[in-house]
Every structure is written in C-alpha cells, then in structure tokens.
Amino acid sequence: MQVLCHPSDGHADIQCPVCNQGFRVFWERSSAPDQKATLPEIYQELRNHHRDASVAAHPDAPFNIPSWSGLPHFSAAALLGGAY
Ligand SMILES: [Zn+2]
C-alpha cells in the first residue's frame, strides 16, 4: 500500500535505520496487519535515500512510498491517512 512519510523532529512513528531521522507515517489503509507488512518496504526506501545522497539523505518535504508522480498531499495515503 501507499504511505506518506513526513519528516518530523518531534513525534515520529518510525525512524530511519541509518541516521535515526524521525518520520510521521500516514497510511493509505488503517489495517494494522497491512501496515506491519509495509514496514520493510519503508525501511528499504529510507536506506535507499542514503545510498543515493551525498549530503542530505532524506527529502525535507513529505514524500510517498512507493514513489508517486503527483503531489504528495494529493496522494491516497495523505487523503485517507488524514495527513492534512
Ligand atoms: Zn536516514
């Protein structure tokens, strides 16, 4: 499923396994088993950020996993997850 990751220095749902940057996560679906099943994909994407980046690994702005060509705040995860 799709998620929206929102960089957060305060309340964080998950942390990057590499740098401990915190993120709030907004889920397209509210089912706990679905969310748990998606976690490995999120962590993998966060690791990928470090593989590609030279300075700042993660985007400052919210982003979707899987990546989505539209605006993050119009994504299903943002709308259904109640991000805004
Ligand atoms: Zn990181």
Using brief descriptors, characterize the structure shown.
4-stranded antiparallel sheet, 32% helix, single chain, alpha+beta, 2 helices, 4 strands, binds zinc ion, 84 residues
Q: How many H/I helices?
A: 2
Oligomer: single chain
Biggest beta sheet summary: 4 strands, antiparallel
Uncertain regions: pLDDT < 50 for 5+ in a row? none
Overall geometry: globular
What topology, given as strand order, has the largest sheet? 2-3-1-4
Strand count: 4
Mean pLDDT: 92
Summarize the amount of helix as a percent range: 25-40%
Task: Tell me the structural class.
Answer: alpha+beta
The hetero molecules present are: zinc ion
How much of the residues is beta strand, in percent? Answer: 15-25%
The run of helices and strands is EEEHEH
Straight-line distance between termini: 19 Å
What is the rounded Rg? 12 Å
Can you characterise this structure?
With 84 residues, the protein is α+β, with helices and mostly antiparallel strands. The chain has a domain at 1-25. Helix content is 32%, strand content 19%. The chain has two helices and four strands, in the order βββαβα. It has helices spanning 32-52, 76-81; strands at residues 3-7, 14-15, 22-27, 63-65. It has a four-stranded antiparallel beta sheet with strand order 2-3-1-4. A hairpin with a 6-residue loop joins β2 and β3 (22-27). The radius of gyration is 12 Å and the shape is globular. 23% of the residues are buried. The model has no long low-confidence stretch (mean pLDDT 92). It binds zinc ion.
Structure, briefly:
The chain has helices spanning 32-52, 76-81; strands spanning 3-7, 14-15, 22-27, 63-65.
